[in-house]
Design the sequence.
């Protein structure tokens, strides 16, 4: 499915089917573009300022001059106006352009995939997969770049194992994150989630959870946990900007019950976003 | 510097400055394009068949339908004819296109950077940097994808350390490869190089070395070696398609002498390629 609307720096609205990137753009040839994915509720992008801040941070980690203030915001407005989709997926890219060229932004708006609500109703099946921890700065911890081939391969491997998505553990068996999600689990009234010091991505929905946990009467503990801690949970869920709070019903074939935390946090997130 | 000539599947020759990729091409948004870089000597691409074979293998590892027979070859011919550069750098990309779209190829021809011969005359300074080994299939060992942001960050880190390039060691201190090179060293008449079983890239110039070592009166040993084995070498060199055989004169600030192996293998490579 092509995006419903596309806006590009210096060009404004462009037909989403029209080529906009040169063959030697380093976003393409070197995977050096930064990106963000977020959700639009009732026409308003949720946590846009925070996503823009992370886009700037990713660009800087990738050695790309970050977007000038206001530039991406303007593209967002253009694309949202043109798309006429009150509930939508919004994607922001900031690419360095050809060698010696000028970085520029691409913003596109697409319908939210209609597979998400059936998946939320059914619950996610996860496969645990070992990946290396991103500790050293040259492994680009905490950045979101289009160098995403491994994340895509991981999703394919999870599907080969009969699961919907993956949860990463490092060589020592410490739980990290998913290819496009953060992972959470509950024991009594404590929500546990891997610490950002593990080199994982600081998800914006993860940040929302930290804010919403208290009002929902949960306590949050961030740390380094072995896979067994996850497997001992009373309930498990993932968070991501597009898929929001997703209950997990299986890890490596072992069943887990749905719980009240995922349900109440999803409801709180929707309230916070001003959505239905 | 823009490429001198660009050829694109279904379009033929295109002005290299003209946009050719849609914003939602998964080569861009997901880093799922396969690529190859090779050298053209006297108008003839060196080891083209082998590079095309690896491009097909990378595409298949990335879950992208590989190029139909003859398609990339045709683009190569078009681009080489148009570029009129007898000695050149040739880059082949095979990108999946937008979701649900058809994969296509991009081939560009550029002058060989004029920094290479001064660098060969001076000798390379390397910095050793720890990176995780790519063992599991979902880490895409042996594939060459445009998800290259870490390789670029590693080059930047090496430069920050006063070096020209990096050599990777894994968490256990085992020598792997460089971000765009294979690494070799010599003791007496034995050339040592890390084994492909370590998940490193099977370089085409590495393959040339395996063929040329015997005629140059060296024996080759492939294996798992700690960094200390490299540091105990009598001489060190890197190999890559564009930069060919590059003598190493420093690793982590420690000086190394130039040796006769790098010099004679570079000469043999040039003879093999039919170049001057």
Sequence:
């Amino acid at each position: 499915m092509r995006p419903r609307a596309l806006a590009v720096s210096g060009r404004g609205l462009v037909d989403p089917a029209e080529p906009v990137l040169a063959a030697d753009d380093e976003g393409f040839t070197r995977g050096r573009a930064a990106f963000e994915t977020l959700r639009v509720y009732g026409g308003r992008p949720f946590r846009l300022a925070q996503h823009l801040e992370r886009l700037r941070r990713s660009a800087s980690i990738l050695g790309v001059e970050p977007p000038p203030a206001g530039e991406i915001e303007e593209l967002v407005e253009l694309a949202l106006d043109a798309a006429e989709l009150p509930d939508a997926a919004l994607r922001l890219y900031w690419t360095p352009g050809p060698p010696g060229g000028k970085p520029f932004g691409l913003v596109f708006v697409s319908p939210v995939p209609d597979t998400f609500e059936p998946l939320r109703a059914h619950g996610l099946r996860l496969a645990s997969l070992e990946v290396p921890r991103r500790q050293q700065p040259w492994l680009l911890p905490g950045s979101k770049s289009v160098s995403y081939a491994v994340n895509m391969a991981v999703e394919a491997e999870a599907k080969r194992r009969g699961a919907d998505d993956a949860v990463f553990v490092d060589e020592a068996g410490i739980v990290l994150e998913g290819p496009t999600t953060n992972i959470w689990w509950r024991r009594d009234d404590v929500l546990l989630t891997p610490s950002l010091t593990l080199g994982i991505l600081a998800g914006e929905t993860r940040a929302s959870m930290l804010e919403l946990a208290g009002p929902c009467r949960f306590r949050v503990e961030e740390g380094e946990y072995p896979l067994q801690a996850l497997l001992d949970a009373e309930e498990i869920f993932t968070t991501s900007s597009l898929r929001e709070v997703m209950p997990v019903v299986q890890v490596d074939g072992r069943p887990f019950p749905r719980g009240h935390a995922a349900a109440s946090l999803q409801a709180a997130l929707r309230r916070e976003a001003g959505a239905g």
Chain A is about 30% helix and 30% strand. Chain A has two domains: 5-111, 116-272.
